[in-house]
User: Fold this.
Amino acid sequence: MHAVTRPTMPAAPDWANVETVCLDMDGTVLDLRFDNLFWLEALPRRWGELHGLDEREALVRLKPRFDAKRGTLDWYCIDHWSEELEFDVAALKLEMRDHIGYLDGALDFLERTRALGKRLLLTTNAHPISLGLKDGHVGLAQHFDELVSSHEFGVPKESPEFWTRLAARHALRVASTLFVDDSRAVLEAARVAGVRWIYQLLVPDSTQLPHAPAPGFAGICSLRDLLP
Assistant:
């Protein structure tokens, strides 16, 4: 694992006025290493075997398909990719479930935030099949009040409309909400929607070096950095 150079610490949230904490799943609570392994290595290798291609050539052919859907619900949709690639994506994810795990500091943050009496929502773009698989393997539901997939709203978190629909269906006030995600596009949508405290997780994959903070957003290396 690479040594982490920590960024300048951002201003802490005003915990006395935080009602709800919304956390992304992959790359914020769970280690994005699983997803990187799956999409960049395991899936190209298995799909390539079915089409007589080596892993490198398979990834070259798959990448334009992935890029065309990035930022849309289809990008996160297991059913879409299973149909598009004529391949059982869910089955391969199940095979790899032992690679699913929490990021350092995530469980400590969840436990201590719960002790502060805050409402905890997992807000993810992950398809319900992926969410169910990960919950079943690492027990996400026991740490959150609700597990929310953007698929129930028909819009991804990259759209400010996600927050409008989340607020309406789950009685959320964005003006008293703290949100953490690793995606710049998702953070920008949250800011447009009026979410009060927004932070970027800079080490979504524990095996990689920290990202540079996106302009205008406070960056943290671990959820633990936000604890009072």
The radius of gyration is 18 Å. Helices lie at 33-50, 55-69, 78-85, 89-95, 106-115, 128-138, 161-170, 184-193. Confidence is low (pLDDT under 50) at residues 1-7. Strands lie at 20-23, 119-124, 146-149, 177-181, 197-201, 218-220.
